[in-house]
Model the fold of this input.
Amino acid sequence: MAEVQPTRMELIKLRRRIKMATRGHALLKMKRDGLIMEFRQLLEEAKEVISGMVEKYKKAQQKLTLAIAVDGIVAVKSIALSCCQIQPEFSMKRKNIMGVVVPVIKREPVRKKATERGYGILSTSMRVDEAVEAYEELVDAILEVAEIETTLRKLIEEIERTKRRVNALEYRVIPTMEELAKFIAFKLEEMDRENIIRLKKLKTKKAAT
Amino acid sequence: MISRTKAAYAYIVARTKVMKSRLLKGEDFRKLLNMSFDEIVRFLEETEYRKEIDEIGYRYSGPRLLDYALASNLAKTYRKILQVSFGDAKILIREYLKRWDVWNIINIIRGKNAGVQPELMEETIVPAGEFSEEYLKSLMVKEMDEIVKEMEGTPYYEALSKIGSVPMNVVEDEMYKAYYRKIVEMPAREFETKLFVNFIKMEIDIRNIKTILRLKIDGASTEEILERIIPGGYELTEDEARKLAAMSFDEISKSLEGYWFWKEVENVTEELSEIEVNFDKAWISAIARRASNYPLSVLPVLQYMVLKKVEVDNLRILGWGKYYGLPNDEIERQMVII
Done:
């Protein structure tokens, strides 16, 4: 506080900065509230998508168990290995949610025809098809969850960051600047009073002589 | 006077009838459905599966124990039928059992491709065909090209020699086609052989219609479906199959009217495994009818062999399903309970 020059210019500058900080604080608060609202909406969507994925996982496990029971563990294992060579295809794009850049995953459905899957139709049962289809759907669901989860994570990070800024402005920056402005104003008043007294004394001296 | 052939069948049929009486009934499966996995294994230890479970109980546990025990018992049962049969019946049964050679070779090749341990492959083989257990075990440790070379002179060599140049699914399907082709082309001079060939042709019908519906649901083209059709069906000839393959799923289910398997599969759904179970039931009913029409033929023996396979499949589904906590109704839906 001592380093600040208690000048009128400094006070004007400081008041300008306080005004800007207050406006920034209000804006950041609005941004935080907006992000929280967006987050809540996405959270509901995420809950649905995640529970859908869990359901698909359970279904896939169930179908896999049946495929193993009917076609044998070696058949299913080799089929799984031949299917693993199929990489899920997707492209990444960006979307802006209140200044937060989030990914948009454009998924190509992981679907292969039974005749392209690397196992014989005559040597396997339909349970294998069902298991493979169930896992293909699961891969789709995982990609969907990945997209929404990344968005949520980025939003949380941004909410945290905004919250920290709002708090810093509200409890640290603005009060410090206001304190400083108060100090400068007080100093300026003090200097004014000193000047008045000095002038009064000079006037008295002059009158005496 | 009873002919020599009839006498031979009378003996084999009598033996299989006794074996058939030991098969688990529908109510047994319903009882097993309400048991836990351990209780099922305990129940099976009081049946003819006891020996196999005891033999490998120290090595395996859980559903893998069941897998191995069931496969061993199935192979043992089939070998026993082959042992008690003689004459023409033996030839026909041996031909029928060669399907297990195809199954075993495919499993070994899949295992090799997937890089699984020979021990795991051993669990899935059913040495009931021409190739002995020792021979199959020796194949498991060989390289792929050595396995193919070993198959030289068998009907499967042509298909196996394509490994590497065509996808594995084509090789697998070609092997089954080779198996069926050999039986369908058998000279059916004798009535027994004719009955056997017709039985296999009916099985081809079932397999073909399953393939058509399976690939139709999957959205395969007519050509892709036709590539998977086994030639030589009983009613579902290649031309019929071509006609059906070109139709939509709904049209197919309407067009099935009139085929011998129609009655049992009247209400075809789009649930794949349900279709399969319905067709299996249709197949078993048809075999039962034909076996009762020709009681002193190879048909009652084949009927028992099919029923034994169904029993083993049901127990496997039950075991895995129970072990992994599948709901009872789902397990029951997957089982072929007559």
Remarks:
- Residues 4-98+191-333 of chain B form one domain.
- Chain B has a mean pLDDT of 88.
